[in-house]
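>> Question from a student workshop board

For tomorrow's exercise we were told to take the sequence and the ligand below, predict the bound structure, and bring the output to class. My setup keeps failing. Could a helper post the expected result so I can at least see what it should look like? The ligand is zinc ion.
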Amino acid sequence: MERGIRFIAQCYDIETGDVLEESLLRDDHISKACRLKELGYLHAEQIDLLKRIQDFKIKQQMELYTSTTCPECGLKTRRLGVFSSQFHAVLTDHKVPIQRVSCTCGWVSASSIEGLYGSAIHPDLLEKQAIQGGKESYEQSSKSLNANSAMKRAVNGHSQISRAVQRVGEKLVEIKSSVEYGKGNKVAETLLVNIDGGHIKARGDNRSFEAMVATACLDRFVARTAIGSGGVSIIFTIGLIPDYHNPRFNKPPFSSRTVGFPESGWRP
Ligand SMILES: [Zn+2]
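>> Workshop helper replied:
Here is what the output should look like for this input. Compare the format with yours to find the bug.
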């Protein structure tokens, strides 16, 4: 007996159980896996199935979006045509059909995901880009994120990852600069500050940067885990200096040092 396996998606009426729309997502012939690689689905096949599942759900959701009455005046709307809009989910890219409608009062519905939600990039993907871009270079982040999706995605380009890091970073600065941030009843008895620096050779000319990093934390033991949380602030000071020493990677201008401020009254 030859065996096959089908993945069928159904949109149905929950009350009556009637199937409103059905789609065959995948139909495979089942064969014996002679090699481990043949067991189950390949990475690219898994992503493809995920994309088809997403496409089906998004299509049903967008049909709910189409408004038959004008939100401004309540009159009946008329259809202007179906537009195709880009949408970037965490692992997959989609072309979303959007039915645009208009009203005689002048109101016109949005024709893109960006117009509807303010962005075509799902927050899950934005979060992954910001985290990955904060951990490694934008080039390496792009490769890592593309590897998750088993394909090269334009949305994971360097410039987008840079923007994601910048957007999240600006928000964090805004939060940390607020009056409310850091307020609490606890006062740290000891505050440790670690400062280090070194030269980084500039690309293309005979100059270098001096980079300094200062980290403040409650104590040595929380330094690693507290990075990025409320217990630590990190300050980067980078300035371009003439390359008097013709360095490649010189020794840091001063060694790493730790200073305590027991009476600082610093609030975590
Ligand atoms: Zn109207």
